[in-house]
Amino acid sequence: MNLKDLQYFYDLCQVQSYTDVAKQHEVSQPSISYAIKRLEESFNCKLIHHDPSHRSFKLTYQGEILLEHTKLILPEISSAHKEIDRSLAHYSTVGFPPIIMQYLFAALNQEKELDFLKKVRPIRRGSLELLDLLLKGELDASLLGLIEPFNHPLLEMRELFQKEIYVVLSKDHPLSTAMSLSFEELLDQPFILLDEHFIHLKAFDILNQKYQNKAEIFFKTDDIVIIKELLKKGIGLSLLADIALSDEDDDLIKIPLIPEDQITFTVYYAYLKSATLSSEVEALFNLIKSYE
After folding, report:
1. Mind listing the pLDDT tens digit for each residue in 252-286?
2. How far is residue 165's CA from residue 81's CA, in Å, rounded to a whole number?
3. What is the per-residue burial (b if ≥16 Cβ within 10 Å, else e) of 144-154?
4. Alpha carbon 21 to chain centroid distance?
5. What is the pLDDT of the chain when averaged over all its residues?
6. Of 290, 239, 286, 292, nearest in space to 116 by CA
7. Closest CA to 13 of 40, 38, 44, 36
8. pTM exceeds 0.90, yes or no
9. CB 175 within 8 A of CB 251
10. How many other C-beta atoms lie within 10 A of the C-beta of residue 223?
11. Torsion angle of alpha carbons 164, 170, 173, 176, nearest 10°?
């Protein structure tokens, strides 16, 4: 069976036009028709209801079955190509959320512990963006910070550690002396948050919905450095894990949320079940786990 025929079939199911699929792949329209015919001969059944004019498009029951399997087969083949290409180049790609990356690289301070960088290419993105890249086969593995239980049939997930979300603000902020804070006490405060690629925004949404969405976001960014600089200037407050703070951030303080509002995020390492991790990536994850 020709994999290209499966790709033509899948694309045809999406756009429902032989002409458009032919243009997309820069082939003739009969090439698409012959591909479907070869598939039908291979499976010994009709996959698409016959319409000589190609003005209507409808899958047979068997065509629906093949489409569902094709949705799984094509991404797996694509992932295999990408994984093999990376292995031939003798490196692995591993996703690192910026806050977790900063925290871990500060802990891994011995030259021997950083040897993995010789064969691991770090990809720095927010957890939600990394999850998408992982599922597309663009990464060999990734660290992920998630605040809700998560399972995916294609992924192997291993828990590394858990961290609390804190209110982070300037030490000169009027609320800086509080021992703990409820989200309700923060409803009139301008929030400075990591954007949609990060789970911190999800934590804000969960808490804000609890209080009828009365809190407002003043500014969003994907850059944790910008957030901390604004906070140090006394502009608003944020919701961050304490691992976002380093020794250089002595102008900022973290205040826990009251138990009723506390949100915990879990750091996992994840990889496709179909993937084969390199020894360097496995050693990296074992080293990270040993620090917690």
Report:
1. 999 999 999 999 988 898 998 888 888 888 888 87
2. 39
3. bbbbeeeeeeb
4. 30
5. 87
6. 286
7. 36
8. no
9. no
10. 11
11. 40
- 264 contacts 165 by C-beta, under 8 angstroms: yes
Structure tokens at 74: 């094509």
CA distance 113 to 117: 9
Residues near 180 by beta carbon (within 8 Å), at least 6 away in sequence: 255, 256, 257, 258
For 238, what's the count of Cα atoms within 13 Å in the CB-facing half-sphere? 32
Question: Rounded distance, CA 18 to CA 57, Å?
Answer: 10
Collapse the DSSP code of 53 into the 3-class scheme (helix H, G, I; strand E, B; otherwise coil) and give the result: coil
Residues 136-166 have pLDDT tens digits of 888 989 999 888 878 888 899 988 888 899 9
Which of 269, 226, 292, 273 shows the shortest CA–CA distance to 130?
269
Rounded to whole angstroms, how far apart are CA atoms 279 and 287? 12
In this prediction, residue 76 has a pLDDT band, given cuts at 50, 70 and 90, of: confident
Which helix (DSSP H) or strand (DSSP E) does residue 69 occupy? Answer: helix 61-88
For residues 237 and 189, the answer to whether their CB atoms sit within 8 Å is yes
User: Measuring CA to CA, which residue among 270, 266, 286 is closest to residue 134?
Assistant: 270
How do beta strands 141-146 and 92-96 pair?
parallel
Distance CA 185, CA 214 (A): 11
In the DSSP assignment, the letter for residue 260 is G
The Cα 50–Cα 48 span in angstroms is 6
Q: Is the pLDDT of residue 85 over 80?
A: no
Please calculate the CA angle 247-249-250 and round it to the nearest 5 degrees: 85
121, two tokens = 């290419």
